[in-house]
Amino acid sequence: MNKREKTILEREDFESWKELKGFKDDDGDLFHKIFKWIPPKILPEDLTKEEFEKNLQTKEGVELFRKLSDK
User: N or C: which end of the chain has fewer CB within 10 A?
Assistant: First the structure.
């Protein structure tokens, strides 16, 4: 395998990793350590602005929003 082929395979692997938001064998939560999650700009329909802001202040709330946005 030459350098060009290796680079192409590495790029494809990286794109798969991004699409899957990490591989199962990654140590810890590597994907989310590298890519910072950005909260949604549009409020979820079932939350008030106050509930949304309150959830953004807690680790559990952020995890909930991140899981919902990954779907």
Answer: C
| Beta-carbon contacts of residue 66 (< 8 Å; ≥ 6 apart) | 32, 37
Give the orientation angle of helix 59-70 with respect to helix 49-56, to 10 degrees.
110
Separation CA 27–CA 29 (nearest Å)? 6
Q: Which of 17-26, 35-44, 46-55, 59-68 has the highest mean pLDDT?
A: 46-55
> What dihedral do alpha carbons 25, 29, 32, 34 form, nearest 10°?
-80
Q: Where are the domains of the chain?
A: 1-35, 37-71
Tracing tokens 């106050």 back to the chain, one arrives at 50
Rg (CA), the chain: 17
Q: What's the pLDDT tens digit per position in 6-28?
A: 999 999 998 998 888 888 888 77
